[in-house]
Design a protein that fits this description.
The structure is a single chain. The protein has five helices and 13 strands. By secondary structure, it is of the alpha/beta class. The chain has one domain: Glutaconate Coenzyme A-transferase (3-Layer(aba) Sandwich). The strands form two sheets. The chain has a ten-stranded mixed beta sheet with strand order 4-3-2-1-5-8-10-11-12-13. Helix 2 packs parallel to helix 3. The chain is globular.
Length: 217
């Protein structure tokens, strides 16, 4: 497994620990899609914006080209899965029927606002259901690498790219640390294995409160 894949799996595995059934969970594109393989709780039900509740993995030989998630990746269906149109799917999201949304981001700021749908001057996939999920999901978790490909922090004082919503996320999980957003402030809750607080400080532009230090008092 490549170093990139190891990092992504580390983040996804940690995010999976936040999911306890019964709950309905929507997974964004990228690292969030990896979370499902670390869930053994049969009462965690995965939802996709294009109209399926009860998403599961699918073996290569069993792929149905017409059965895909919102990111156009092939998926399977659990026993008892439900199909519906996109309008009903978004009504579920906007109506508060999704318990947890796990999203990838381009940037996140120290108040928990995220940018994940547009890079000025570049063409990317677009917003998808992120705006709706930020408004409608009861809890929003961000899974992302701590820095961009050029080594710059993704955790910023203020997002440079257009923000997705004025609602702040609840938790941020990277390969370095786990943060919680509370009352518009970033709180460091946990260091990933082998990571030091100095490394987190060095790679984080955003201001944060060191809860590890507070607990040690």
């Amino acid at each position: 497994m490549s170093e990139k894949n190891q990092i992504q799996d580390l983040i996804a595995k940690r995010a999976a620990k936040e999911l306890t059934g019964p709950c309905v969970v929507n997974l964004g594109i990228g690292i969030p899609t990896l979370v499902a393989k670390y869930i053994e709780d049969e009462n965690v039900y995965f939802h996709t914006e294009n109209g399926l509740l009860g998403v599961t993995d699918v073996e290569e030989g069993q792929i149905d080209p017409n059965l895909v998630n919102a990111g156009k990746l092939p998926v399977g269906e659990t026993i008892g899965a439900s199909f519906f149109n996109s309008a009903e799917s978004f009504a579920m999201i906007r109506g508060g029927h999704v318990d947890v949304a796990i999203l990838g981001v381009l940037q996140v700021d120290q108040s928990g606002q995220i940018a994940n749908w547009a890079v000025p001057g570049k063409n990317i996939m677009g917003v998808g259901g992120a705006m709706d999920l930020l408004v409608g999901a009861k809890k929003v978790i961000v899974t992302t690498t701590h820095t961009s490909k050029d080594g710059k922090s993704k955790l910023l004082k203020k997002c440079h790219f257009p923000i997705t919503s004025t609602r702040s996320v609840d938790m941020i999980i990277t390969e370095l640390a786990v943060f919680e957003v509370e009352e518009g402030k970033l709180n460091l809750l946990e260091l990933m294995p082998g990571i030091t607080i100095e490394e987190v400080r060095d790679k984080t532009e955003a201001d944060f409160i060191d809860q590890l230090k507070e607990r040690a008092k």
